[in-house]
Amino acid sequence: YQVAQLYSVAEASKNNTGGGEGIEVLKNEPFTDYPLLGGKYSSGQYTYKIYHLASKVPAFIRLLLPKNSLEIHEEAWNAYPYCKTVIT
């Protein structure tokens, strides 16, 4: 199940990316010695993604907002079945 979940997320990211828009995966690597949930989980998969949303919003909103305000940065530590996600 865990492998299938990671595969489906990667495929969705790839399918939504094109022309500089969509999801940009900057890091996708194993992590160790990063305690999660009080030290219960300490290894798994780390991902750092940027979601580019400019093409997903109406043109008049793009004109009103700064370009970098249409980006969401996501860091995730997936230690199945526990996952910590930080969105900024």
Automatic annotation (TrEMBL):
GO terms for cellular component: cytoplasm. GO terms for molecular function: phosphatidylcholine binding; phosphatidylcholine transporter activity; phosphatidylinositol binding; phosphatidylinositol transfer activity. It holds the Pfam family IP_trans. InterPro entries: PI_transfer (IPR001666), PI_transfer_N (IPR055261), START-like_dom_sf (IPR023393). Residues 1-88 form the Phosphatidylinositol transfer protein N-terminal domain. Signal peptide: none annotated. Gene3D superfamilies: 3.30.530.20. This is Phosphatidylinositol transfer protein N-terminal domain-containing protein.
